Amino acid sequence: xxxxxxxxxxxxxxxxxxxxxxxxxxxxxxxxxxxxxxxxxxxxxxxxxxxxxxxxxxxxxxxxxxxxxxxxxxxxxxxxxxxxxxxxxxxxxxxxxxxxxxxxxxxxxxxxxxxxxxxxxxxxxxxxxxxxxxxxxxxxxxxxxxxxxxxxxxxxxxxxxxxxxxxxxxxxxxxxxxxxxxxxxxxxxxxxxxxxxxxxxxxxxxxxxxxxxxxxxxxxxxxxxxxxxxxxxxxxxxxxxxxxxxxxxxxxxxxxxxxxxxxxxxxxxxxxxxxxxxxxxxxxxxxxxxxxxxxxxxxxxxxxxxxxxxxxxxxxxxxxxxxxxxxxxxxxxxxxxxxxxxxxxxxxxxxxxxxxxxxxxxxxxxxxxxxxxxxxxxxxxxxxxxxxxxxxxxxxxxxxxxxxxxxxxxxxxxxxxxxxx
Length: 421
Ligand code: PLP
Known about the structure:
The protein is of the alpha/beta class. Helix content is 38%, strand content 15%. It contains 15 helices and 14 strands. Strand 1 and strand 2 (43-46) form a beta hairpin. It is globular. Residues 59, 114-116, 119, 142-144, 155, 204, 209, 237, 239-240, 264, 274 line the site of pyridoxal-5'-phosphate.
């Protein structure tokens, strides 16, 4: 028995399902999760010493690769001065300034500790600003695990078959309305049906939690227009797309301004961080400048701020990173089409593979993927040292550390798996 198997035996007795987040479990694909000891660049090493070419990238934050020297240096220098003060620090002001500079529509931000916390807080703010209770989200989009967003949710909830989680009060779920991704008519219908009651439309500008589903041309603009027409706010959940699609995230990439946006992942460089921000007139309603209460013992933690700041500075200094990512992702996308009856969905450095011959443009079409073929693919890749997310409905992430050689290695593994079928 390997170390991962031994650790997993212990882990299941100590933690539900043996993991601290369901997406890490191998339930959907079979087998035991690999327990990771270290990471460097685009490679991970597990507790048995086996090495993997990593396409999980900690689910998005590691756009520069693991253990990037500039990020490590910032973290170590900051940690040496103390881990947390529960007081204002210069680093918070700097990271907020860096985000505001890189994302033009952002005028103010509030730091929190996770994407979930950012979403929960931004929804409260949107409700306070508009004086309305209902929120429109999209089937198969994931916005963290706060009660109101666990209704037809994507990611681990979808993989585990619990898109509507037990424990969410019916009264809370009733205020969450679900539209179909890439179907602005379904949004308009809800806005008409619940006229004057919808506070906000929240959307992943590129859906990345039902697999990757890019917005069709015009979809995001139609959301902007509908929100304006119905007096509700447009919220972009940029927890995945922020600073990944472009230096200014999806707003920059698609040229659409949301009223509010939510961040996480990359802005913490691997440390636990989230943030929400947007127009100043709305953000000023947050306590203590306004009455919308939201607080956090560790919010704006100096070590997390230092890590995030180091990543954003690297991205700003080296805009060529985005071209590098685009080039590699395109190469991988093209190579994957060597597999029969598949669809590769890609936007920038976010992509994944569906085992279906139908175009995948929403949750229903994502669900046509053959999950047993996905499990076989995942296992075939893992045995060749390539680690993808252990579930169909998750994105694959490329990093600056990936190279052309890594893509060729991946495609050779894909070809070998194809031969085996
Ligand atoms: N929003 C999106 C789009 C996400 O992908 C995630 C997590 O994957 C979240 C929100 C929640 O973030 P966190 O896991 O940091 O709570």
